[in-house]
Prior knowledge:
Elements: H1 2-30, H2 35-51, H3 56-67, H4 77-81, H5 83-86, H6 93-124
Helix pairs in contact: 1-2, 1-3, 1-6, 2-6
Protein name: DUF2784 domain-containing protein
Pfam families: DUF2784
Keywords: Membrane, Transmembrane, Transmembrane helix
Amino acid sequence: MLYRLGADAVLLLHLAFIIFVLLGGLLVAWKRGFLLLHLPAIAWGLFVELSGRPCPLTYWENLLRRLAGTQGYEAGFIEHYLLPLIYPAWLSVPVQYLLAAIVVVINALIYGGLVWRHRHRSAAR
């Protein structure tokens, strides 16, 4: 039971990290201190997507699931709704490249907007 809860917690952490990589620039807009966390997170996310290496969170989740005595994912809420978001059946190398490009474009737009806003505020002073 404890291993399964640990695996579910790692899965939730994994999803939160993916969302942070994708949209963390919005937190930077709120508090600049998040920049020191977000830029390395983007770099790591792109590295994992483009290199084809598995994320260590995947390793830990699978290890905890094996320790819990399960090989696959049982039909619980977390497995049913969150696993397909993180591990879709259609995921392939070209799709991973597309996902990496989406991360870059979204973050470029967010950070571009932040730079634009900062420059216009500075010019108005």
